[in-house]
Amino acid sequence: MSKKTLWIINQYSSTPEFGYGGRSYYLGKELVKLGYTVYIFASNNHHLLKRKPNFHGDYYVQNVEGLNFVWFNMPKYKDARSKKRVYLWFKFAYKISKLNKYKFQKPDIILQTSPSPIPFLGAYSLSKKLNSKLIFEVRDIWPLTLIEIGGISKNHPFIKLLQWVEDFAYKKSDLVFSNLKFSWKHMVSRGMDKSKFRWIPNGFDKEEFDNPEPLDSNLLNNIPKNKFIVGYAGTIGISNNVESIVEVADMLKNIEDIHFLVVGSGPSKINIEEDARKRKLENITFLDPVEKSKVPSLYKTFDVCFLCMSDVQLNKFGTSLQKYFEYLASGKPMLYAVNSPEFDYVEKYAAGYEVPSVNNLDISNAIFKLYNLPDKDIKQMGINARKLAENEFEYSMLAKKMDQYLKDL
């Protein structure tokens, strides 16, 4: 029996050539290996791209290892906070609703993925026209995230619209996927039948981690030698709580061997760098983001991978930051400073330490404890981390799990 055709609708997806790949790309690529015909539909203009795919016409199909990646020509917007970005959710939804007019292979299944639920309206309309099964994938719970982290009132008219769309999506989808293990609790409270829920976490690509590109010598020269490196790589924003790294660096500044390395960009980076300068900290280094293909090589320079998040109620539904799975795959111990007590893989696998609350004193004590461990214990934690990644979160394995769910439709 031939495998099915799957259309993944993800406005902010990308290929490694133009962006950072991401969940849709990696799962799609692995599903192709399992015999599926996969199309991913994305915008050629969004804030998560390293560079824009340039082409003439309405769309461009990029074939990557058998995966059909369809870039739609969409208008530019300034940044993630631009009002025009909101308008483009609706424009993208409209484009999606008209995909039945294009000469792509008809889908058996359409999967529309968040964060914004607005494109679901287009996916729902399309599924009716094509008589396809429909999956709603939640990678970030909107509008709850905008309320809890963004500080927007739940009574704001646009929040009410998003809430209506979210509830509509739970009711009209054949299945609901999420990378957040306990998000079903929220979804059921919004009217979803629990039997629809399937958990598929984020993961890592084994090939990328086994064969990484080396770091540039200029970047390597900016990483201190013969130090115990506590590293963070990723977005520097409000929800990431990276400011705690500066606080902890200040607490541990008298221990010369411990050095903090922060690699990334984001809206909070300027303020955090300024805070470190005001404190006259010499034990913290800030670097710009590195290319996705070089990230595994960056992790090799860390002694401990540090993951922190703001202490918000959303964490009770689980966390699924991409760096969590990449940190594990790096084979280095992780310090997991997130208040998400049920998501306790690091502790269970002895792959590092978990700090149950985002408390800077707890974090500094955990780092000091890791620093004082014998080398063999640090190495064993790293081995355990990699084993955890391979046993639970490798993308080829996750695609097989997804395949089983798709067979149910």
Automatic annotation (TrEMBL):
<dbReference type="InterPro" id="IPR001296">
    <property type="entry name" value="Glyco_trans_1"/>
</dbReference>
<protein>
    <submittedName>
        <fullName>Glycosyl transferase, group 1</fullName>
    </submittedName>
</protein>
<feature type="domain" description="Glycosyl transferase family 1">
    <location>
        <begin position="222"/>
        <end position="387"/>
    </location>
</feature>
<dbReference type="Pfam" id="PF13439">
    <property type="entry name" value="Glyco_transf_4"/>
</dbReference>
<keyword id="KW-0808">Transferase</keyword>
<dbReference type="InterPro" id="IPR050194">
    <property type="entry name" value="Glycosyltransferase_grp1"/>
</dbReference>
<dbReference type="GO" id="GO:0016758">
    <property type="term" value="F:hexosyltransferase activity"/>
</dbReference>
<dbReference type="InterPro" id="IPR028098">
    <property type="entry name" value="Glyco_trans_4-like_N"/>
</dbReference>
<dbReference type="Pfam" id="PF00534">
    <property type="entry name" value="Glycos_transf_1"/>
</dbReference>
<feature type="domain" description="Glycosyltransferase subfamily 4-like N-terminal">
    <location>
        <begin position="25"/>
        <end position="207"/>
    </location>
</feature>
